[in-house]
Amino acid sequence: MRNLLVTAFVSLLSTSVAAEINVSYTKLAQTTAYESERVYAGRVVASRAAELGFKVNGRIANVMVDLGQSVMRGQPLAQVDGAELAANKRNAEANVALALANIGAMEAEVLLARNTEQRFRRLREAGHTPKQTYDETYLNLRVKRSQLTVAKAQLKGAEAALDASSIALSEATILAPFTGVIQARYVDEGSQISPGQRILRIEENGILEAHIGVPGEIGARLLSGGDYIVRWNGNSHSAQLAHVLPEVDPATRTQTAVLNIVDANIPLGSSIELTVNETVSEIWCIDSRRSRPLGCLCDR
Q1: Sign of the alpha-carbon dihedral angle for 276, 282, 287, 288
Q2: What residues form DSSP beta bridges with 254?
Q3: How far apart are CA 83 and CA 169, in angstroms?
Q4: What is the DSSP pairing of strand 198-204 with strand 70-71?
């Protein structure tokens, strides 16, 4: 019995030693730095967008575009009823014509007054007419010249009014400020609108922008004009950093990095990610024989 117990004890001890010997371990090696990928999210926006409206009030006569329609720069998009504006322009044109006629008449009167003044001056010099008569002709010449000056000023006022009415009539039509897509339509034909009221929203197509919030320390390291990689829907796209906005968003406490996305067909408003490689220094990491660290012990 005693021999049996000794044998069992020796067997148990051997098993324990063997288990201890077979425990796996990982060798750690010190390194000065390692690369860490940081991913920051944002959204895709148009490089340019505009809310379009009229500078004049009136009734909407025609909206020529629909939602999602592509338009070219300078293309007419909407019109307000321009009957009253057209009448104002015709009235301004008539005032210009009247001012020109007045100038013609005043120039003739000035010419007559000048010739009369010259004749009476010669008569006065010869002593054939009283000084009072000559003075009257001279003063009449000055009056006619002043009236001509007034007529020319009236012409300038009439021309300015015509320019204003022409501008107002041209503003009765909204033209596309750039090539893009109609993103919103706020009114329909027959609506009564006021100056500045929103009629359409257009967003530029072509170059897209990614607006991505990054921490201040990351934003300080990003290089304007530098090339970066953004990801959308599992695909990578090249992007160039335009700038980092200096103001910190009070809600997220991040700065907005604006990147131009080149040659990518990404829907506006989509979520997009920016990957930034960061070098972390003074660490212990797993043996460099592995392709990449499985874990780290920081020693900063």
Answers
A1: positive
A2: none
A3: 9
A4: unpaired
pTM for the predicted model, two decimal places: 0.62
d(CA 103, CA 145): 11
Phi, psi dihedral angles at 207 (to 5 degrees): -75, 125
pLDDT tens column, 229-271: 888 888 888 888 988 988 888 888 899 999 998 777 888 888 9
Please provide residue 143's backbone torsions phi and psi, each rounded to the nearest 5 degrees: -60, -45
- What number is the average pLDDT over the span 34-53? 86
User: 171 vs 42, 137, 209, 292, CA distance in Å?
Assistant: 37, 51, 31, 64
What are the DSSP calls for 118-135, one per residue? Answer: HHHHHHHHHT-S-HHHHH
Q: In one letter, which amino acid is 164?
A: A
- Joined together, the tokens standing for residue 199 give 């009629």
How many Cβ atoms sit within 10 Å of the Cβ of residue 42?
22
What band does 52 get if pLDDT is binned at 50, 70 and 90? Answer: very high
